[in-house]
């Protein structure tokens, strides 16, 4: 009887965890961006800046598949320079150096948050355990109800 319970638990665990991503999820980006000072700046489509201010940073990591911390970009290669824009707060926008000496405007959208694959795995594990516990609880309740029903006959 214990082997049946163990088998049931293993089967349920496998079923529940099969819904987890089998590989670290590739990130799909809705738009090109850079990260500077913990904030994400979305690249404008064709708004170029001529009055640039000081150099404020540069892309330290580039990937179009994964997220990274620091001055990260999904569109620009490592070393691409960020500038402040004269008369515009960096809380609003910055300029990004492009080839040909042009600088494109990027608007600050909000704080940059990295999605953790580890966090996703932990969630799946917790839900799997809760699912198994729920099945065990239902099984025990049903077994108790059936046992009580047999006593009355």
Short précis:
By secondary structure, the chain is an alpha+beta fold.
Q: Which key terms come to mind for this protein?
A:
single chain, two-stranded parallel ribbon, 153 residues, 33% helix, alpha+beta, 2 domains, 8 strands, 6-stranded antiparallel β-sheet
Describe this structure in words.
Helix content is 33%, strand content 29%. With 153 residues, the protein is α+β, with helices and mostly antiparallel strands. It has two domains: 2-23 and 117-151; 33-111, no CATH class. The strands form two sheets. Strands 1-2-8-7-6-3 form a six-stranded antiparallel β-sheet, with no helix packed on it. A hairpin with a 2-residue loop joins strand 1 and strand 2. Helix 1 (2-17) runs antiparallel to helix 2. Residues 22-26 have low confidence and may be disordered.
**What is the percentage of strand-forming residues?**
25-35%
Count every beta strand, where a strand is a DSSP E run of 2 or more residues.
8
How many distinct helices?
2
Which spans of ≥5 residues are poorly predicted at pLDDT below 50? Answer: 22-26
What is the rounded distance between the termini? 24 Å
Determine the fraction of residues in helical runs and give it as a percent range: 25-40%
Supply the number of structural domains.
Answer: 2
Shape: rod-shaped
Radius of gyration, CA atoms, in whole angstroms: 27 Å
- For the largest sheet, list the strands in their spatial order: 1-2-8-7-6-3
What is the N-to-C succession of helices and strands? HEEEEEEEEH
Largest sheet: 6 strands, antiparallel
Broad structural category = alpha+beta
Average pLDDT: 82
């Amino acid at each position: 009887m214990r082997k049946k319970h163990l088998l049931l638990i293993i089967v349920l665990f496998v079923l529940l965890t099969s819904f987890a991503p089998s590989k670290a999820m590739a990130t799909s980006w809705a738009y090109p961006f850079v990260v500077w000072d913990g904030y994400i700046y979305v690249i404008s489509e064709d708004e170029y800046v001529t009055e640039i201010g000081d150099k404020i940073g540069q892309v330290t990591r580039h990937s179009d598949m994964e997220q990274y911390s620091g001055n990260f970009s999904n569109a620009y290669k490592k070393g691409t320079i960020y500038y402040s824009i004269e008369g515009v707060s960096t809380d609003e926008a910055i300029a990004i150096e492009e080839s040909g000496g042009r600088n494109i405007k990027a608007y600050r959208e909000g704080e940059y948050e990295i999605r953790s694959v580890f966090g996703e795995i932990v969630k799946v594990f917790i839900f799997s355990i809760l699912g198994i516990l729920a099945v065990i609880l239902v099984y025990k309740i049903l077994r108790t109800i059936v046992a009580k029903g047999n006593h009355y006959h």
